[in-house]
Design goal:
The chain has 82 residues and is mainly α. Helices cover 59% and strands 0% of the residues.
Length: 82
């Protein structure tokens, strides 16, 4: 029960902590993935899993999230260069 409560707090807080399970578990999406899940839950564009990403990956419903993550990464790289 304690682990589930901690996971819920981490997923809903909106911050990515260094001790986050998403740093250690490859199928755990963390707060970024969960925020995207809430943003698009009422649309038909994907991300139906709230925390574990394997089903969205398997059915291809995480493409929007992966594109957004790539754009953010490019943006951070440009910022670091300047």
């Amino acid at each position: 029960m304690v682990v589930r409560v901690l996971e819920t707090v981490e997923a809903h807080c909106g911050y990515h902590f260094p001790w986050s399970p998403s740093n250690f578990l490859p199928l755990y999406g963390g707060s970024d993935f969960h925020d995207y899940h809430h943003r698009l839950i009422y649309t038909k564009s994907g991300n139906y899993s709230s925390t574990f990403v394997y089903m969205d990956w398997l059915f291809g419903t995480d493409t929007g999230y992966r594109k957004l993550k790539a754009l953010k990464s490019e943006e951070e790289d440009k910022y670091k260069e300047n």
